[in-house]
Amino acid sequence: MKRVGLGLAAALILGLGVLHTYFPLPYVYRVLAYRDADFEDIHRFPARVIAGAATPTELPSASDGRGAVAIAAHPDVDSLDTLLAATETTAFVVVHHGEIVAERYLRGDSRASLQNTFSVTKSIVSALVGLAIRDGAIELDAPITRYLPELAERDPRFGSITVEHLLDMRSGIRYSNDVEFPILNSDDPLIYYHPDLASVVLERTVVEEPPGEFLYNNYNPGLLGVILRRTTSLWPGEILASEIWGSLGVASAGWTIDDLGLERMESGFHARARDLASFGLLYLRGGVAAGRHIVPESWVATSTELEERPQLENYDGRSWSYRLGWWIVPRPDGPSDYCAIGRFGQFIYVSPQYDAVFVRTGPGRGDWGDRDWTELFYLAAERL
Fold first, then answer.
1. CATH architecture assigned to 41-383
2. Global pTM value
3. Is 273 within 8 Å of 93 (Cβ atoms)?
4. In 45-193, which ranges are continuous DSSP H helix?
5. Where are the domains of the chain?
6. What is residue 264's three-state secondary structure?
7. What is the dihedral of CA 371, 377, 382, 383, to 10 degrees?
8. For residues 348 and 342, what is the distance between their CA atoms, to the nearest angstrom?
9. In this predicted model, what pLDDT tens digit does every residue of 121-170 receive, in sequence order?
């Protein structure tokens, strides 16, 4: 029995040694132990503090209940509270004309709780790229090999990919969401659990086709993170804190990082629900907060409005577009709505025509998919 135990131990050590040849042991452990991503992952990884205001300026609140009424007008909703309880929601905020008209916290969370946003982070990244373009550090139509020359040495086809292609998810870089954990060499776990995310996007990415076709791809924001770091000499979270978050008058937030300090660019940003609404309001107001231009108005406009209807994609059962890190939801009679969407139903949804912002977070979403939530917000905005 002792020999069997020793043999198993030796086999395990040998197996780990072989795996370590291809993958760092911290990565192997995370994939085997944590498996798929989880809403509580913000507590598993180190995070950079995104400093906010010492005393946050809270959004004003209205007591007329019109937010709950607008949500309950949807034919599939009995009441706001029933909906939120059935969909594992942790936080829900509706802002109309600059004031909170509905606010709920569930599952033990409160106004102070930091909410995991998953891919809502990509819209934050878009704002950071807009700032870098404003400052002349990055050009939108520049080939990414200008900033990442080692990619051209590995495959000259990387030279046809621009910064804009990365933001629009049209890079042509191979990516597959098909994974059954624990699969170590799959794209999703590599960009999520690897301790050196820069090495993943610089050494493991493969050009599959010329840029142009839409493919939702988590390597794209990872490459943008390395570009931001090289061109500004700052970590993306440092740019966010100094240029945006500290100017919004909101509470401090966080952004998970890898073992070398690079933010998880495709996910990992976490903040209070109210403060996510304030970020939505920043875009709703053309990049202005507290009378200051924080994000260039031209960048906000370019990111959130369709120039041509052919940009529309059939995705998740409806026609919408993905532009510079935002999902665009067209309206027939006015400016498009737009939203930041994260896994498990994280949302910042903005409706310029109706001057409204919706925020929803939670570890699950019940039977409500992204299409269902966007349709709910789309209709509720009209009824506020």
1. 3-Layer(aba) Sandwich (3.40)
2. 0.93
3. yes
4. 66-72, 80-86, 121-134, 149-154, 163-168, 187-193
5. 2-33, 41-383
6. coil
7. 120
8. 9
9. 999 999 999 999 999 999 999 999 999 999 999 999 999 999 999 999 99
